[in-house]
Write a structure and sequence with these properties.
35% of the residues lie in helices and 26% in strands. It is an alpha/beta fold and 436 residues long. The chain folds into three domains: 168 residues, 3-Layer(aba) Sandwich (Rossmann fold), CATH 3.40.50.720; 162 residues, 2-Layer Sandwich (Dihydrodipicolinate Reductase, domain 2); 83 residues, Alpha-Beta Plaits, CATH 3.30.70. The strands form two sheets. Strands 7, 8, 9, 10, 11, 12, 13, 14, 15, 16 and 17 form an eleven-stranded mixed sheet that branches. Strands 3-2-1-4-5-6 form a six-stranded parallel sheet, with helices on both faces. A hairpin with a 7-residue loop joins strand 14 and strand 15. The protein is elongated. The termini are far apart.
Length: 436
């Protein structure tokens, strides 16, 4: 059989890793597929300086549209990232009847519905395994391995930068800003780390997982997103004392009232496996009605871990390249005409337990006043600790764990307590999940 020709858009970290894996493992891949896969056209800035692909046998260009318009290319691999240009290139590739593989979580989370619709109408596929959790094959697991299940909930550590920061804060007692600076020096965080530390990157990925789990449309704009920049070393220490670890989780859950879709710092019991996923590693915990809990762990980023997922998508595409689209696994795991209209719940509607830390004047009656407000709003306190004031200070930290409470009730109570003269500054709130 003739070789299938692939066009790469981008030869940076992931693009370079993809080319390296395709070339290094060419014989093994051909044994699996039954035909050769060749990189025939590559686009990238400064492409003339690259040393990964053979310029004598591969067309090189700085104009990515040359690749998507190349009649010899059957599969376009989009690895440039971003929204606008990437979308234009993908849509043009689909218009030209080419299959697409992408690692672009932002593109899929925000424009995936439009892209998948165009691909279905054109009879081509769009694959995106590398868009969530790097080298962990979670998309395939959700679409195929767990297809017999009604998925009940997913909780994931799906951003390695945030996980690295929280791990360092816990293990070494460092503060957020100090660890963030090191993460930037190590290349784990960008110069502008907003997408990572404020949860936007994780929200893109969670949006995709929720659609795969529950058959709902991609709704990134409905995802509640909260970052880790306000987590203090005190919070990390107090959580440990209470038997919890703080992780930046993406959580989606199906309830009677709709779908929860939220990214935020979370206290989880230290005995849970996912609580012990440290450093830059990722993990996704999925609860199915038939299989129960399953945990997927591995490298969530990096050149070759991500390339592993990209190349796996290329292989899957080649295996079914001539099959009608209706015979392929649906791009979101559910048939296009059977997507659910279940609403995504507003954060005010969800119910969780909470960890609260407040700074109060060291005087009698403060805790009683706080408890009175909580009782008025149907909030039960499960545990409370008063920390001794630091030397030379008159104020104390009050640390409380509540039982499960409606978010809107908790928010109202916090505002009332913050108005007390005895309470200094704002109250820190971190949601608590048992995950089992």
């Amino acid at each position: 059989m003739n070789a299938v020709k692939v066009g790469l858009l981008g030869l940076g970290t992931v693009g370079g890793g993809t080319a390296t894996v395709l070339l290094r493992n060419a014989d093994e891949i051909q044994r699996r597929v039954g035909r050769a896969i060749e990189i025939s056209h590559v686009a990238g800035l400064g492409i003339a300086e690259q040393t990964i692909v053979d310029a004598a046998t591969t067309k090189l260009t700085e104009d990515a549209f040359e690749v998507v318009n190349d009649p010899e290319v059957s599969i376009v691999v989009e690895l440039i990232g971003g929204y606008t240009l990437a979308k234009d290139l993908v849509m043009k590739a689909i218009e030209n009847g080419k299959h697409v593989v992408t690692a672009n979580k932002a593109l899929i989370a925000t424009h995936g519905s439009e892209i998948f619709k165009a691909a279905t109408e054109k009879g081509v596929s769009v694959s995106y395994e590398a868009a969530v959790a790097g080298g962990i094959p979670i998309i395939k697991a959700m679409r195929e391995g767990l297809a017999a299940n009604r998925i009940q909930w997913i909780a994931g550590i799906i951003n390695g930068t945030g996980n690295f920061i929280l791990t360092e804060m816990r293990d070494k007692g460092r503060d957020f800003d100090d660890v963030l600076k090191e993460a930037q020096e190590l290349g784990y965080a960008e110069a502008d780390p907003t997408f990572d530390v404020e949860g936007i990157d994780a929200a893109h990925k969670l949006t995709i997982l929720a659609s795969l789990a529950f058959g709902i449309e991609l709704q990134f704009d409905q995802c509640y997103t909260e970052g880790i920049s306000k987590i203090t070393t005190d919070d990390v220490v107090y959580a440990q004392e209470l038997g919890y670890s703080i992780k930046h989780l993406g959580i989606t859950r199906k309830t009677e009232n709709g779908i929860e879709l939220r990214v935020h710092p979370t206290l989880i019991p230290k005995k849970r496996l996912i609580a012990n996923v440290d450093g830059v590693m990722n993990a996704v915990l999925v609860q199915g009605d038939a299989v129960g809990p399953t945990l997927y762990y591995g490298a969530g980023a990096g050149a070759e871990p991500t390339a592993s997922a990209v190349v796996a998508d290329i292989i899957d595409t080649v295996r079914t390249i001539d099959a009608p689209v209706e015979y392929k696994v649906p791009m979101l795991g559910f048939q296009a005409g059977s997507m659910s209209s279940e609403p995504v719940m507003a954060i005010e509607e969800i119910e969780t337990a909470c960890y609260l830390r407040m700074t109060a004047m060291d005087k009698p009656g403060v805790l009683a006043e706080v408890s009175e407000v909580f009782a008025k709003h149907n909030i039960s306190i499960e545990a409370v600790t008063q920390k001794e004031p630091a030397q030379g200070e008159d104020n104390v930290h009050l640390v409380l764990l509540t039982q499960i409470v409606k978010e809107s009730n908790m928010s109202t109570a916090i505002k009332e307590v913050e108005n007390f003269d005895e309470i200094i500054g704002s109250i820190a709130r971190i949601r608590v999940e048992q995950l089992g």
